[in-house]
Design brief:
alpha/beta; Rossmann fold; 2 domains; 6-stranded parallel sheet; globular
């Protein structure tokens, strides 16, 4: 590779071996940005016994320890509801006590940026929220390096998130002022969040919506199971629970005699299941992304539940994997937000308001009828392909080239 490549430092707490939608987004940046044009150095969080430094075909990966004095507690699949809730309460209280719980990691990131820059000058930094310490470490480093460009990847909202407390909001507003004064570009996952950022970040010149997308090249599995199988991939938290889905299911079954099962993939059992459905529900432990896609593609329908109070612009990472396998989506969400718009655009399912069990029953019926008729969704495969992560990262690549000329 040529040494004349643009040198990008990616600052993120989310990188393998960690697993999450955020990790997949960061991996897509590394995997799909042109290797001929860019050298990428990743500076991330080391949670366990991973190598502190390794080198691959795209560049160096540095994993920095956090060294939290008071640790956050991790939830595990299958633990009981009381233990799960206790951990959530503990983590919320800890956030209130510690303004910047990842401060030790932030300081290490600043030092690592200096080290990397001394070896091979950095042309541009991409920092990704959350946690906010990724942005703050980048800002602090850039105070002494005025020529380096900065893309602040927000993913989700910061201070405009309707679900955070006032203390957190004030901290994020302070960070937004710093970002506004220094960043050349802002990226987020959806246009409503991006529009909020435009309103807040009046000094920033460039804005881009970079959706998460899917990252597979699977051919659609045209199987129909002998028992109508619905799958939900992921977790439930806060007000996002499946209670209205179960109400809709009950209504659907009052007029249909159906053999069915519901698979919960990598889902914490932190919600109530009506007695009559308990023997229909199967909990599958977390698996890697390829195995998860196999489960999703072999099911007859995917279940998407989004109950985002005081929030707009929420896709949920799983929606793209759901669309990619071309099975009907039972959509239980806000019919006026971006996820519903995307499902309509892709002919991927039937939209039901989270608070309307009768609509949910119709969404279940829509998916069941496709299974019962042994038919398929009328999707446009070319349109589906535009949701692949490589197409989204091309937007980022064009943005970087616009900011950095070399």
């Amino acid at each position: 590779m040529s040494d004349n490549r643009i040198h990008i430092a990616l600052v993120t707490a989310w990188f393998p071996p960690r697993k999450s939608v955020a990790v997949n987004r960061m991996l897509a940046f590394v995997n799909y940005l042109s290797k001929e044009r860019f050298k990428i150095t990743v500076i991330t969080l080391n949670e366990g016994n991973s190598p502190a430094h390794e080198t691959n075909q795209t560049g160096d990966i540095y994993r920095e320890q956090d060294e939290q004095i008071i640790p956050f507690l991790k939830n595990k699949q299958g633990e009981n509801k009381l233990l799960h809730l206790s951990k959530v309460v503990w983590n919320v209280l800890l956030l209130k006590v510690l303004q910047y719980p990842h401060k030790a990691w932030m300081k290490r990131v600043e030092k690592r940026l200096e080290f990397v820059h001394s070896k091979n000058p950095i042309d541009l930094i991409i920092s990704s929220f959350s946690p906010i310490e990724a942005h703050l470490a980048t800002y602090n480093f850039l105070q002494n390096h005025k020529s380096i460009a900065w893309v602040a990847d927000m993913r989700d909202e910061m201070s405009t998130n309707g679900q955070i407390n006032n203390q957190t909001r004030k901290l994020l507003q302070k960070a937004e002022i710093k970002i506004n004064s220094r960043a050349q570009a802002i990226t987020t996952v959806s246009s409503p969040i991006l529009n909020d950022m435009r309103r807040i970040m009046t000094q920033v010149q460039e804005f881009a919506e970079i959706r998460n997308g899917f990252d597979n090249d699977l051919k659609p599995d045209r199987n129909h199971n002998s028992v109508f199988t619905i799958i939900y991939a992921g977790t439930f938290y806060g007000p996002r629970k499946p209670h209205t889905f179960f109400e809709g299911l009950r209504i659907f079954l009052s007029t249909h005699t159906v053999e069915f099962k519901i698979q919960f993939l990598g889902t914490h059992h932190n919600f109530s299941i009506p007695k009559e459905f308990e023997n229909k529900c199967e909990f599958i432990p977390p698996v890697d992304n390829n195995k998860a896609l196999e489960y999703i593609s072999k099911a007859d329908a995917s279940l998407l539940i989004l109950n985002e109070i005081n929030r707009v612009g929420v896709y949920s990472g799983k929606i793209f994997d759901y669309i990619s396998v071309q099975k009907p989506i039972i959509s239980v969400l806000n019919p006026n937000d971006v996820a519903a718009d995307l499902i309509r655009e892709q002919n991927a399912g039937y939209i039901a308001d989270f608070n309307q069990p009768n609509e949910i029953a119709r969404s279940i019926e829509f998916a069941w009828k496709i299974w019962n008729d042994k038919s398929y969704l009328p999707v446009d495969e070319a349109k589906v392909k535009t949701l692949h992560r490589k197409y989204q990262v091309k937007i980022l690549e064009d943005l970087i080239l616009k900011i950095v000329s070399k």
